[in-house]
Structure formats: C-alpha cells, structure tokens
Amino acid sequence: MKKWMAVCMLCFAFFLLVSCQQKDSLPGKTTKPKAPLTGLKTEQKVAERRPVAVVMNNHPKARPQSGLDKADVVIEALAEGQITRFLAVFQSQMPETVGPVRSAREYFVTLSNGFDSIFVHHGWSPGAKEQLESGAADNINGLDFDGSLFWRADFSKPPHNSYTSYKYIKKAAEQKGYELNGETNALPFQTSEAKPSNESYNVRVDYGTKNVTNLVEYDYDKKADAYTRSSDGVTTTDRETGKPVAMQNIFIVEASHHIIDQDGRRGIDIESGGKGLLIQHGNAIETDWKNESGRILPVKDGKVLPFVPGKTWINIVPDLDAASISKGEGV
After folding, report:
1. CA dihedral 302, 303, 309, 314 (to 10 degrees)
2. Which ranges carry the DUF3048 domain (predicted)?
3. Residue-wise burial string across 166-183, b where 16 or more C-beta atoms lie within 10 A, e elsewhere
4. Reported confidence tier of residue 254, pLDDT bands at 50, 70, 90
5. Residues 253, 317: contact at Cβ < 8 Å?
6. What is the rounded distance in angstroms from the CA atom of residue 322 to the CA atom of residue 320?
7. What is the rounded distance in angstroms from the CA atom of residue 162 to the CA atom of residue 247?
8. Structural domain spans, the chain
9. What is the helix, strand, coil percentage profile of the chain, to 5?
10. What distances in angstroms separate CA 323 from CA 79, 276, 278, 304, one per listed residue?
11. Residues 202-246: tens digit of each pLDDT
C-alpha cells in the first residue's frame, strides 16, 4: 500500500512539473524584455525602438547640457583643440530636450552606425559631410531644420545654443522616411549580481594641456553603486532637472589620434583596438578593447567582458596615461 502511494505521489509530482512547464510555454506568456543598451527591464515597445545618437557640445559655455541623463551610452572624444564632444546614444529613454547639438565628425558617424542609430548633428566637418552625403548613415542635420525642428536657446550664443527634442527628431525622421523601430543588438551584460568593491576607486581623465584645463573626474557612490561625473570641478548635471548625471560603467580606451587639417580636426583610429581601463562596481580592471560590429567593447584574455546593467560612458583618449585612479571613500 505504501509503495502504491509513493508511486502515485511521484506521478502527481511529475504531472505538476509538466503542467507548470506547459503553462510557462503557453502562447502569450513572455518574460519582461530588457533594454538592449542598458540590460534593464523595460516595455516591449521600448525594447523595439530604434536608437538615436546625438552629437553634443561639451565646451564650457555649453554646460550644463540637456538630456545626457537619459542617454544609455555616451562616448566622449576630442574634437578640435582640447575640447571634447559627446555622442549620446538614446534608446531606453528619449530626451524631451537635448543639446546643445554640435557638428559631426567622421568617427562619430562610424560609432553611431555601430548602434544602427539615427544620427543627429548640427553641421559637419568636410570628411563627415562627404560620409553622410554618400549615404553612410540615416542622419538629421540641424542646418536643414534650424528655426523649425531645431531651436536656438536665448541663454547662450551660437554655436552653443542649438537644441532639439525626440518629438522633433521623430518628425524629421518621418519626413526623411527613416525607420523608427527595429531590433537593436544588445550589449553584453552581467547576468549575476556582483557586490561593490570594499576598496572603491575614483577616476580622473585629463584631456587638457599645460595651457588648457579639461579634467574629467568620476566619483563612486557605493550605496547607489553608481558614478557621478564632473568637468573641471563642476558636477555634470541635467540643465532641466539639476540632477547629477549617473552611470554604472566607465570604459576608458586608448586610440591613435592625428591632426588631419589646418583647423586642427582629428582622425581617431576606432578600428584597431588597444589598451583600456574598465571601471565598474568601484573596481578598476586593466583590459584591452576591440571594435566589434562598430562598437567599442572591453576584452580580457581574448574574451569580451560584460558591462554592469545600467548606463555606460566611454572615454576615448590619445594615451591611457591621461587616466589615473585613486582610492575613494565610496560614500
């Protein structure tokens, strides 16, 4: 009798297991999708939205910027002189206001294509103009919409006062016949939760010279497990909200730079790979980097290192010696 009851119980358990598996596989029962560029849970319609990449001004007169807090990925690189510009890639969140918008450079066009983004800029260098007029990317140029879908803010002067919004970017994209939805290949993200480091590290990236100051600093907040950023001692905040811009990953990469014209414009080698420094969870990891399908990714012992789910900032520097790390308090 006991043996018969045991067999019945086993059969019942097996029935429940099969029923649960069938229930989980029923049509319409899906897991919550994740945003491809942050690895965080989101809505299906958001996961299917095409990225938008905006070239943003980082001249001291352009700060604080609008919309940087909404970007999933921000890539910072030198333009002319010692001033950097941002390529802000939006996908999981779209900005109501974004800017100041600045002119395109060839390497920003190429990096935007790595995310299959709609590329947004205001003006262009001769090389970027040649790229875009040959059809290298779906692009929206503020020169074509100045005073309509791009506006000039009255609190600053050109070229530091060109702004737009996702609402207007959508209108321009529709006019040009660009797709606004599509599958975006996901960045690699950690699948298990890692604990913040007991010894957290803050980071400095010096883009300046003896005569020009352009110092970027990242400070780690252990409680939030996130970094905040400052330029020349002033916290990077959103103009509209006043809140600090925060990120979970900082990736600093060394790439060859060379001057390509008399105006001091640069060519940057974003194809060949090189040395890198990955900062996450308060840790600093020496890595290499490679360009995989147009994206700059960290590599260690030949394997791609995953990012922490959240936002990512990538700093491209001519020499990794521009970066330095120090122990922080990890507030």
Report:
1. 20
2. 37-178, 204-314
3. bebbbbbbeeeeeeeeee
4. very high
5. yes
6. 5
7. 25
8. 44-176, 201-327
9. 20, 35, 45
10. 18, 10, 11, 22
11. 899 999 876 677 899 999 998 899 999 999 999 999 999 999 999
Q: Helices marked H in 88-161 — which ranges?
A: 106-113, 126-133, 142-145
Burial of 323 (0-12, 13-18, 19+ CB in 10 A): buried
Q: pLDDT tens digits, residue range 159-208?
A: 999 999 999 999 999 999 999 999 999 999 998 776 666 667 889 999 98
Amino acid identity for residue 267 in this structure: G
Is the pTM here over 0.85, yes or no?
yes
The answer to whether the beta carbons of residues 161 and 147 sit under 8 Å apart is: no
Are 122 and 94 a contacting pair, CB within 8 Å? no
Q: Assign 10 to helix, strand or coil.
A: helix
At 331 the pLDDT is 52
Containing 304, the helix (H) or strand (E) segment is: strand 303-304
3-state secondary structure of 154: coil
pLDDT reading at 259 higher than 70: yes
> What length does the chain have?
331
Q: pLDDT tens for residues 18-67? A: 344 444 344 555 688 999 999 999 999 999 999 999 999 999 999 999 99
Sign of the alpha-carbon dihedral angle for 19, 20, 23, 24: negative
* Assigned fold of 201-327: YerB-like fold (3.50.90)
Angle at the Cα of 191 (from 187 to 197), degrees rounded to 5? 100
CATH numeric code, 44-176: 3.50.90.10
